[in-house]
Design brief:
Blueprint lengths: L3 E8 L3 E3 L12 H12 L3 E5 H14 L7 H12 L1 E5 L11 E4 L3 H10 L5 E4 L2 H9 L5 E7 L7 E2 L10 E8 L5 E7 L2
Parallel strand pairs: 1-6, 1-7, 3-4, 3-6, 4-5
Antiparallel strand pairs: 2-8, 7-10, 9-10
Helix pairs in contact: 1-3, 2-3
Protein name: Dihydrofolate reductase
InterPro entries: DHFR-like_dom_sf, RibDG_C, Riboflavin_Biosynth_HTPR
GO biological process, one term: riboflavin biosynthetic process
Length: 189
């Protein structure tokens, strides 16, 4: 069965964005881009909330075609265009979106149906609201977290709507030169 892996940057105190959604504190560099690119290339499906999907859709389809596109932009743009996209939204309509599935109801049933289909892990990019909804139903199988060396004090929390204790097993940890630490957890049990 396929797994849903939540991929997020977060502050040391567990926030994925500032109180107004700001993410200017996120630290990324070529070392992180290379690490993420390798892992992302092993997946064939991306899951987003509506807001993150629209942000991605505004940039990634043509990012690799820009004259100043770097290696990361070219590779991720190609991956994005080839990947199947799943969007959690109560307001979007499935209006001829290429290679995209919109889920607006029966979240648990629809996600479990997709998880039973052939394919690789499903990467949930950003999307704190989608993460909260999936957490509420116990549908996230792992967390790929990039802990940034900052304490925000307040903002949008990564972990919300957790009904019961969730035990995790650390698979990999990695420190990057820029101070970010990657933690790769799988739900244990």
């Amino acid at each position: 069965m396929r797994k849903i892996i939540s991929f997020m940057h977060m502050s040391l105190d567990g926030f994925v964005a500032g109180p107004n959604g700001e993410m200017d504190w996120i630290n990324v560099d070529e070392e992180i881009f290379d690490h993420v690119g390798k892992r992302v290339s092993e997946s064939d499906t991306a899951l987003y909330g509506r807001v993150t999907y629209q942000m991605m859709e505004d940039y990634w389809p043509t990012a690799g075609d820009a004259p100043d596109a770097d290696k990361h932009d070219i590779e991720h743009s190609k991956w994005y265009n080839d990947a199947h996209k799943i969007v959690l939204s109560k307001t979007m309509k499935n209006a001829d979106l290429d290679n995209t599935t919109i889920i607006s109801d029966d979240l648990s049933g629809r996600i479990n149906e997709i998880k039973r289909q052939p394919g690789s892990d499903i990467l949930l990019f950003g999307s704190p609201t989608a993460t909260h909804s999936l957490n509420q139903h116990g549908l996230i199988d792992g967390y790929w977290l990039f802990v940034n060396p900052i304490i925000l004090g307040h903002g949008i929390a990564l972990l919300a709507n957790i009904k019961d204790k969730v035990k995790l097993k650390l698979l990999i940890s990695r420190q990057f030169a820029c101070g970010v630490t990657a933690l790769d957890y799988v739900v244990d049990g």
